[in-house]
Amino acid sequence: MAGMVALVLGLAIFLGAHSVRIVAPDWRERQIARLGENPWKGRYSLASALGLGLIVWGYAQARTAPVDLWLPPLWTRHLAVLLVWPAFILLVAAYVPGTRIKAKLHHPMLLGVKLWAAAHLLANGRLADLLLFGSFLLWAVLDFRSARGRDRAAGTPYAPGNGAKDLVALVIGTLAWAVLAFWAHAWLFGVAPLGR
User: Fold this and answer.
1) pLDDT for res 159
2) What is the C-alpha to C-alpha distance for residues 173 and 112, in angstroms, rounded to an integer?
3) Taking the mean position of all CA atoms in its chain, how far away is CA 57?
4) Domain residue limits, the chain
5) Which pLDDT score, from 0 to 100, does residue 43 have?
6) What percent of the chain has pLDDT over 90?
7) Which residue numbers delimit the NnrU domain (predicted)?
8) In angstroms, rounded to a whole number, what is the distance separating the alpha carbons of residues 4 and 54?
9) Which helix (H) or strand (E) segment is 7 a member of?
10) Residue 34: exposed, middle, or buried by beta-carbon count in 10 A (0-12, 13-18, 19+)?
11) Residue 56: exposed, middle, or buried by beta-carbon count in 10 A (0-12, 13-18, 19+)?
12) Were both Cys, which of 93, 98, 113, 159 would link to 165 (CB 3.0–4.6 Å)?
């Protein structure tokens, strides 16, 4: 029970901090003007770290007393592994300057989070999974919509990008995915996505 409470509280803090720009952009700008950019970023980072810590601890605790909601078929685990692969490429493309992926999609990190969360919802049927991945999926959908609206309002231009940078994102994203899928996921989370 304590784990579930910590998970929900952590999600509220972490996603709440990351949603200020969605629900209260004017308030956010006033706080940055009042505090200064670095103090604002410091408070934002502290809230994010606290929320993330509670999410990790709460999710780990909740997994020790799982509440099953449904039993996903085994094949959904393999589908999830495949879906997370492009999610990693999208996440990397958000931070590699000059990709065509970012030029086309504008916010590939949020699309990657959506794909990651949806993949995990397909393969997991427990209450803690629904809370964790469902919350991230909902947040990413709302944040993507908000970010695209801000882009349109500001007339944000996106450079066309080039294929070489896409290749960099593809290689780094694929390597990161492979390390997680074949080794680190089992080590970090106790679950081998490929059933090894």
Assistant:
1) 80
2) 11
3) 17
4) 1-65, 68-196
5) 94
6) 77
7) 7-193
8) 10
9) helix 2-17
10) exposed
11) middle
12) 98
The residues near 10 (Cβ < 8 Å, ≥ 6 apart) are: 50, 51, 52, 53, 54, 55, 56, 57, 58
Amino acid, single-letter form, for residue 30 = R
The enclosing H or E element of 146 equals helix 127-154
Mean pLDDT confidence for 91-118: 95
Question: What average pLDDT does the segment 143-154 reach?
Answer: 90
Mean pLDDT of 175-179: 94
State the sign of the Cα–Cα–Cα–Cα dihedral 155, 161, 166, 168.
negative
pTM, two decimals, is: 0.89
pLDDT for 195 equals 64
C-alpha 154/C-alpha 178 separation (Å) is 38
* Phi and psi at residue 98, to the nearest 5°: 85, 20
Rounded distance between C-alpha atoms, residue 173 and residue 163, angstroms: 15
